[in-house]
Design a protein that fits this description.
It is built from 17 helices and 13 strands. The protein is of the alpha/beta class. A 6-stranded mixed β-sheet has the order 4-5-13-10-11-12, sandwiched between helices. A 4-stranded parallel β-sheet has the order 8-7-6-9, sandwiched between helices. Helix 5 crosses helix 9. The radius of gyration is 22 Å and the shape is globular.
């Protein structure tokens, strides 16, 4: 290991690099890393620790006594360094400040879908209402340790709003690059947090490229998903939260809304680490769920080739024509015997409506895609009814009111007297 307790490992060539070689302004493998427009990243890095040493000191019973949603309770599994010369990576950050970022401890829920019990992880109640808070917090804490006060991110909306909200709380400046067609709710959220917002006349892939270029030019720390290894690392916390909330057990299969592939890769990383630490024996099977109008990961897994096709799905949070973390996402599927499924936008909206009407949760289209994928598996007899199934609900529905308007019709308006007469007539009809 290096002078720190972690290394960066290239997902392509396998070379390992000490933090001193990567931080603060390196992101991809120095040997084979490559960033090209409208292409997946090559040489994306993954952070690894001394698992053999950690395994000797990791007691299962003590680990299971930890709380979901509080990543600092297992601090040795994060790529931060102490600012105080101790072995505690979070030692330089006030405990009260960390506690203000705690995720809800009861994120796991369940309901009966056509007579079958299905569990879900509800990230709609996170600080800014999305799964992306898991990555943004780690990125922001890293920026603080590196002495950097400005962070840039390209986003379809959730990653940007997540970073903007967390930067507001930490007193950092957020530069957010988003497509001009960003849902209104997410744009308003960005502006409300005080971020510097750059609307790009183009799709997410165009925003990704210009945002990365400007971050490099101005020396801002960069949060671009997949490009910064900490975005993958931060999302692994979902795997730990599932493990802790289920008291040491895991689902058999997890349906993952997939755009750039970072949630998929991060979830796999967390489950993989639990196995490396001797806390579990087998990995849950992961299913990448995409829209038919943005299915680059599905096509790559099926053909082994990447072809850029612009994504046009209503599920903006998983709309990526060039998934930047494509190769690592495909690896996650291979190592978990995973599968892919593409669903229609219509089925996504129907699933969004069903989640709202049957659970009382309002999720955005990308989150509802997990249910749409599950239902398609059920319809095609691809799922064992006895399998313990978990869906990821990754973002709040109010972030995209326009999507809700496609199925939640506005009720008619009448005067009080008209309502009185109408309801009186109906009551009389019921008595007759």
């Amino acid at each position: 290991m290096s002078s720190f307790h972690y290394l960066y490992k290239c997902s392509a060539c396998g070379l390992k690099w000490p933090p001193e070689r990567i931080e603060p302004d390196g992101y991809l493998c120095p040997d084979c890393g490559k960033w090209q427009t409208q292409r997946p990243l090559e040489g994306a890095l993954r952070i690894e620790y001394d698992y053999a040493s950690l395994r000797r000191s990791m007691d299962r019973a003590r680990f299971l006594s930890l709380s979901p949603g509080r990543m600092w309770e297992y601090s040795q599994l994060w790529p931060l360094k102490s600012a105080t010369g101790t072995d505690e990576p979070f030692a330089g950050i006030a405990r009260s400040r960390l506690e203000s970022f705690a995720l809800p401890q009861n994120q796991l829920g369940a309901w009966e879908v056509d007579g079958v019990r299905v569990e879900f992880l509800d990230d709609t109640r996170n600080l800014t209402g999305s799964f992306k808070d898991r990555a943004s917090l780690l990125v922001a804490l890293k920026a603080l340790q590196l002495g950097m006060r400005e962070i840039s991110a390209s986003s379809t909306g959730n990653a940007g709003t997540s970073l903007a909200g967390i930067c507001a709380r930490l007193g950092l400046t957020a530069h957010i690059w988003v497509p001009a067609a960003i849902p209104k709710g997410k744009l308003l959220q960005l502006v409300a947090y005080g971020a510097r917002v750059y609307l790009v006349n183009g799709d997410y892939d165009a925003a990704f490229d210009i945002g990365l270029e400007m971050a490099m030019k101005h020396g801002w720390y960069n949060r671009n998903t997949g490009f910064n290894p900490l975005t993958i690392e931060g999302k692994k916390s979902a795997a730990y939260d599932i493990f802790l909330a289920l008291r040491g057990s895991l689902p058999d299969i997890v349906f993952v809304p997939t755009g750039d592939g970072v949630v998929l890769a991060g979830l796999h990383k967390g489950f993989w680490e639990l196995r490396e630490l001797g806390l579990i024996e087998t990995l849950p099977r992961l299913v990448a769920v995409q829209s038919e109008r943005g299915d680059a990961v599905c096509r790559y897994v099926r053909t082994g080739k990447f072809e850029y096709v612009p994504a046009t799905t209503i599920a903006d949070s998983i709309s990526a024509g060039a998934p930047r973390n494509l190769f690592m996402a495909a690896q996650a599927l291979r190592e978990t015997n995973g599968l892919t499924v593409a669903v229609s936008d219509e089925s996504i909206l129907a699933a969004q409506r069903r989640v709202a009407r049957e659970t009382g949760l309002l999720v955005e289209p990308a989150a509802a895609a997990s249910l749409a994928g599950y239902l398609k598996f059920r319809a095609d007899d691809l799922l064992d009814p006895s399998a313990r199934t978990l869906l990821l609900f990754t973002g709040h529905g109010l972030k995209d009111p326009a999507a809700l308007e496609r199925w939640a019709e506005r009720p008619p308006s009448r005067t009080a007297e008209e309502w009185r007469k109408l309801l009186s007539d109906k009551s009389a009809g019921a008595r007759d």
